[in-house]
Amino acid sequence: MMSIPLLTINIFLPFFSAVIILLGIGSIRAAKIFAVASSVVTLIISLYLYRSFSFDNHSYQFEDIFEWFERRKIMYHVGVDAISLPFIILTNVLMPIALIGGWNFSEFQSRNYVMLFLVLQTLILGAFSAVDIILFYVFFEAILIPMFFIIGIWGGDNRVYAAYKFFLYTLFGSVFLLVAIVFAYYIAGTANIPELIAVISKESTVIQQLIWLGFFASFAVKIPMWPVHTWLPDAHVEAPTTGSMILAGILLKMGGYGFLRVSLPMLPQASHYFADFVAVLSVIAIIYASFVAFAQTNMKKTIAYSSIAHMGYVTLAIFSGTSYGIQGAVFQMISHGLISAGLFFAVGILSEQTHSKEIKDYGGVASVMPNFAIMLMILILGSVALPGTSGFIGEFLSLIAAYHMKKIYAFLAVFGVISGAVYMLSLYKNTMFGKLKNSKLRDVIFSESFTLGVLAVLVVILGVYPSVVTELLGQSMQNFVEFFSLYKR
Amino acid sequence: MIDLITVIYILPELILAIAAIILVLLGSILKKKSFYGFFAAGTLILASFLVYEPNQPLMLLNGLALASSYVCVGKLVVLTATLGVIIISIGYKNDFSKDYEYYTLMLLATIGALVMISSADFLSLYVGIELLSLPIYALVAFNKKNIWSSEGGLKYFILGILASVILLYGVSLVYGFTGTTNFLVLKSMYSSGNVMSIAAGIGMVLILCGLFFKIAAVPFYMWAPDVYQGAPLPVTAFLSTTPKAATIFVLIKMLFGYFSWAASIWQPILLFVSCASLIIGAVGALLQTDIKRLLAYSSIGHIGFILIGIATMNGVNASLFYLFVYLSMNLGIFAIISLLQEPQKENYEISVFRGLAKTSPILAFATSVLLLSMAGIPPLAGFLVKFEVITASIFNDHYLAVIIAMLSAVISAFYYLKIIKIMYFNNVEAQLSDRSFSIGNAFIALVAVVLNSSLMFFPTVLESWIASAIRSLLG
Lengths: 489, 475
Known about the structure:
Oligomer: heterodimer
Number of strands of chain B: 2
Number of helices of chain A: 21
Distance between the termini of chain A: 46 Å
Order of helices and strands of chain A: HHEEHHHHHHHHHHHHHHHHHHH
């Protein structure tokens, strides 16, 4: 059974689809059909991986290992465990959905965009399944290239500025990540993540702290945390709709995934040492971003700031030192991946028709787009963490974790939940209800309602039956044992 | 009396010299101008087939020259790089690049580079450097119709002569206080316990200064932007490849192979020079709008990376690796710039790239690959070599240099992105100008793009080749 490198096929299938489109498929329609087919196949593969995933096994599964740098013990080594599997599935769910939903969007009228989109999928999947830390960095960093072009070519009026800001912020963080990775590799003499964890977690606190800071510089920019979050609103506002979906839905999770994958298990003492620092930044992010979101006049900016606030729960939960925290963080990231992608998509549906993302240009939309309004309502309620939606589970677990850490963090973070309801619901009220400002709007067509519908249904399913994800994670807390033990007094 | 074995090892130089003479003779008889470039290219190919690799290092010409697999690699690299430049020159649509003098000078300069690489004595090193430099002074000023070309030539000449004098003075100090100019004798003298006198140490430093000038390392970089800008395009390509490659090979051979015992003298100097080059290379290019000036600063930055590798001793493999990738990136980008020129109308503002994504998507893609590689973004070769250098310097505990290198890489990404932005993001009406297409340039660009995008996946091939070359240096 292990003879077929399923995971590698999953990773590189989109890339080769892009190459085939480049070489052989001229018409944009055929290219899109081919891209959808390819992404559906990757989805099927990843669901198969989920089916045959052994829950009792804490180590990596479906591993593929090939020689790469023979002399340096750096290898092409991919595998999935319970932490990466949810993200891989999330990626493979969002990709076909974005492709189908964006069928008629302006950015999808270009073959180049379709190709870049597929390449992006390969790089994301590679980053989530890399077991070799150098390989992880290569994928992680290479994502910059397609994303830079996606924002810069198909973005809005201020796209050049946004693309630059995105690229340089991320690159700036990444160089410290690279230095930290090489430093860890130097100490441990291996680039294999489990082996690195075994060696580095026993190192002295000072060394751990140095490496931790290097990792933090990159992951904090990626998530993004206050005060290095400023690239995100610009990138989101300017990016094309489907680009925003992937950016908010998946790319932001890279940072959280990085913390879970390397920072916590590899550097338990440093993570413990810096936990309060991260928690304070997270609480600031939650409260600050909520206020800023409320003040926005641009729909995409509101959602972008709400993303920053939601990611604040993630970082707060990750460093809480409890298993609730890890579960909550992963759940919150998956849930936010679905919700934010849906919200950005909804904004895209509106702005494709009116070419405006300003809140003031809309009103009474619900009267002309009833189906749209219903599905958007579910997503908005997910975003404000109403019980019964996935958002609730994620924030609830995160708040429990924060409570275990220090009560004051939970107390302050709860304000984020309230203000989240305020700005999201007022966004909904201002655009959907009231006086009709634009009567030319048409309701969602099939492809759009398919995407919105799937996302809304997933949000509800995860909210009602969260153990799909938490069961997966419950078994794999092994990696964090040492980190947890530091908190026990 | 020169014996036959020696002749075998210096055959490439001899072939090039003979070819240069033939070219001069033909030039006075033949009227068919397009022939010269192909003749020079053919000679270079022939010469690179005649590079003969000995089983183990041996001294030639009474210790003046060295034959080893390291020297062999160096010669091949220089010959290949020069071949690339010649191909760019053939495709370069301007009258003077058809002159036989042009190719004669280039062949002569190449001989100088080869002599430098195989030198095992300060005297032969100096001869090589001069033989390399003198034709380049003339080549820089070759475009007689362009006042900046003459200005650049004169500037390069005056400063270059000064650097040569400094180097020669250093050699005389070393000779005066040790009684020899031979690398091997110096090495054995000091490995048996002698301590280097201060004056000889100063001599070494002065020699290094002379060499730093050739690779435009800070603080000897001031000539580079002006000369790069003034020189005709293929000559700029030549300046940024062949002399730099030869000098890097010499630096590694000298410092790592023969003077590693004096590391306490040259290591801090090299570290300082490399960090300063990185910073100047990154910051200096930010506001440049002339593509040649921009590439001059970018070269300074790349040289900084290469020098870090040499300074860390164990990083020489990484440095050589970096050098290969640097050469491929540079030749590729110069070939592309040459493809963008309209006949008889030269424009080196970065605006020549404007809207290239619309007018010529393939060329725009090639440019982006090369620029992103220069910026060091994975999975391109530029990242691979930066990673190698960083790894080497972390393994030797040079953390400050690493931080400076990485930060300057971020800053320099800014101006590489600027060109990509001009190609892709700026909305312009597609205006098709009749650009001069040449198969040679397209070929070089293609090779560079393929190399830069695939090296990451097969790093071991080049790596093992370099490792064996370095081993022969120590053996």
